[in-house]
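Posting this for the archive.
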Amino acid sequence: MDARATLHDRLGRTAAVDALSDAEAVQVTELLAAAERDERQALDASIDVTLRHLPRLVRMPARRILFG
């Protein structure tokens, strides 16, 4: 799948995506992937910090409740 098709899948079919050159579409796709990765890592870190504030005996049940 090319970068433009990936952007259409992620952002919907818009004129802005159609107006991008191939190089720009690749760059935007890479930037979106990096932003999603960074956001996922930040969320994981914040969850870990939050769970560390719970008493040790409550951490595992809290993880099971939150994540199944």
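The radius of gyration is 19 Å. The longest helix spans residues 22-52.
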